[in-house]
UniProtKB/TrEMBL annotation:
GO biological process: 'de novo' IMP biosynthetic process
Molecular functions (GO terms): hydrolase activity
Protein name: Nickel pincer cofactor biosynthesis protein LarB
Family matches, as InterPro entries: P2CMN_synthase_LarB (IPR039476), PurE_dom (IPR000031)
Annotated ranges, domain PurE: 118-250
Stored Pfam families: AIRC
Species whose genome carries this gene: Qingrenia yutianensis
Length: 252
């Protein structure tokens, strides 16, 4: 059950339209379905505010279809699928209508929310970081956030970033995505007055160690207000940014 459904149910109890026992029975309705290979969580949105997201890597197209159909059967019409390759997306789309975002490796069943709030800025050090950034951007939009992309604004040409000072200063949350030495997060952290979520990417030459150098650099940032997620984890950064952006009953 979604939070607004629970509120409506509680209001019906207060108005005498349903008994307390009847309401309890509806709330206790089985929170998941055992499919054998997965247990879709139908109460995720009521607990955390966001419906369960399907992680596509390692799952077959048939398993993703089964999980999606289970969600749909229990009222979840809009479904986000991350780390989904094109071949699986095509198989899923033959059974369920799916919009595929090729660069982000994301599939969406249903639709994006029409209402979006706040402002999340997603900045990348280089063009090679865009696949991770697009995972973050599409996730951010699906979670109901106004999302601005600032791509290829790395420290090798710092003037490119400084040309967007207004966007940085007016953001509610910034996601800074970079490989190599990962310096972008520290620079943005020194300019912004909002939380900065750093995403190290596996972009870089040998000594970058597939993103480890950027990860350690971001963890050791001297700029205050910078937090760090795992290497290439655009989804995790966007999820955290969305939680921050929606705090405090934001209704812009």
């Amino acid at each position: 059950m979604e939070q607004n459904e629970i509120k409506k149910l509680l209001q019906n109890v207060a108005d005498g339209k349903i008994s307390a026992d009847g309401a309890l029975l509806r709330i206790k309705n089985k929170p998941f379905e055992d499919l054998g290979y997965a247990k879709p969580d139908f109460h995720r949105k009521s607990r955390q505010g966001v419906s369960e997201v399907i992680y596509g890597a390692g799952k077959t197209a048939e398993q993703i279809i089964g999980i999606s159909q289970s969600f749909a059967k229990h009222g979840q019409k809009d479904i986000l699928i991350t780390r989904l390759d094109k071949e699986k997306a095509e198989k899923i789309n033959s059974e369920i209508t799916l919009k595929y975002y090729d660069t982000a490796n994301i599939g969406i069943i249903g639709s994006m929310p029409e209402k979006r709030v706040g402002k999340i800025v997603i900045a990348t050090g280089g063009t090679s970081d865009i696949p991770v950034a697009e995972e973050a951007a599409v996730t951010s939009e699906m979670l109901g956030n106004n999302t601005m992309r600032l791509y290829d604004v790395g420290v090798a040409g710092i003037h490119r970033l400084l040309a967007h000072t207004d966007e940085i200063m007016t953001a509610r949350v910034i996601i800074a995505i970079a490989g190599m030495e990962g310096a972008l997060a520290s620079v943005i952290g020194g300019l912004a007055d909002c939380p900065v979520i750093a995403v190290p990417t596996s972009v870089g030459y040998g000594a970058a160690f597939n993103g480890l150098a950027a990860l350690l650099s971001m963890l050791n940032s001297c700029a205050s207000g910078v937090s760090v997620v795992n290497i290439d984890n655009g989804f995790g950064a966007a999820y955290q940014a969305s939680m921050i952006n929606h705090m405090g009953g934001l209704n812009e």
